[in-house]
Amino acid sequence: MYINYEVADRIATISLNRPDVANAQNMELLEELDAAWTKAASDNDVAVIVLRGEGRHFSAGHDLKSSSPGPDKITLEWIYQVEARRYLEFSLRWRNVPKPSIAAVQGRCIAGGLLLAWPCDLIVAAEDALFSDPVVAMGIGGVEYHGHTWELGPRKAKEILFTGRAVTATEAEQIGMVNKVVPREELDAQTRALAAHIATMPSFGLRQAKRAVNQTLDVQGFYAAIQSVFDIHQTGHGNALSVSGWPVLVNLDQMKSAIKQAN
């Protein structure tokens, strides 16, 4: 069991529970996580959803060493189907859950970790939080849920992708990606206090406010962009397949090196 789930005072708390591997996401964790989101969304006793991670780090992203089963011959079609569901569809579904959601982020939030934090409506970050997407070092132009331009702005998005460097919590707050930065030891308490305040608001008003903002972003092109850039992401896998026959681990050492050098 890779996800802890509890409800108290109209707040559903979903906790990533693989602290020994920095909450890296294997397929089982993602399936459990989606089930937890679905459960919270359908529970009338839940007004606000909080997503957090156990241990030092929010999430180190996809578990690149996962032994999740796959076909004997990896094809781009298979990769596309798996990633479309677990990385794109899941993230979009979490984004559109008709209840306010808050991500509490500490330590590393790397690549696939962004797919968990960005769909949340609000982000509270600990002072030690670092956000990064270094997958250009793997020959891929960014993670599957490509919210970079919307979350960071176009030039900052290019800088982060081109260099692989991390955005600090303070910088993330300055550019509007993070709502609040708090001391690490206060992260859970302050996130819960924010959730508790929001939970006092009328549920229908919260639903309508969230829909209004999300629909405005979609009219501006968010949803179409996320879908189209996902296809661009898949060309990176196609290139890796043609080079090495394996779409994920190609240039993994380069990516690890890039993370160290950039930060």
Automatic annotation (TrEMBL):
GO terms for molecular function: catalytic activity. Pfam families: ECH_1. Signal peptide: none annotated. InterPro entries: ClpP/crotonase-like_dom_sf (IPR029045), Enoyl-CoA_hydra/iso (IPR001753). SUPFAM superfamilies: ClpP/crotonase. It comes from the Bacteria. Belongs to the enoyl-CoA hydratase/isomerase family. This is Enoyl-CoA hydratase/carnithine racemase. It comes from Parafrankia irregularis.
